Amino acid sequence: MHNIPDLSENFVYFNDDTFLINDISPSFYFNKMGNPKDACIFNLIVDDGELSFYILNNLKIIEKHFNKWHELKTKPFNYFNIKYKSSQIKNFLLLFWKNFTGFQNFHLPQAFNKKTFIELWIAEKEILINTCNNKFRNRYDVNQYLFRYWQLLKGNFEISNISSTGLCISPTPNNFTKIKKIFNSKKIKVVCINDNESISNFNTSKEFINSLLRKKTSKQMHI
């Protein structure tokens, strides 16, 4: 990704199921120094199909380059901070595990510095080349979360309460009312409409989301 011509040093990675639903500025994703805004919250790896293998492979790489206790001692306020609010409870509960047990992934657009990609490609070129050469994902691959974990543990971020301004939700009919409220909210800036296997009536969900997007863009055009 860092080899994309004219890619800015500060950029935001979007999945194809994420949407900006209110106005934002560059300061939403980066501070004045250009550091990405993020949250370093510990988590446990759970069975989530193929994704679990990629996350575990990511952690194997992280364990090669970072020592959990060293990071906690040298950067304690990256893990325990009032800005995390109740989310930091996970960091307290998972504190005494010797190794990193995982990190909370928000499934929202992710702010990156290009230098993070350059550093990781120098450090772990072989696994990254192998992953890129696979036409289809396999259980030995890593994914984009590896770059985020690296960035977090390098301390190259400004603490932000990610979950307060963005949400991830599945577009099933029983969530339609909640999704509509999200799109009408002024507080929520970004939403992920998580198109997973649980969607049984795809066409109904698709038309519902498209109707919300049409209304949203129509309002913006008249501002």
From TrEMBL:
It comes from Proteus mirabilis. This is Gt1.
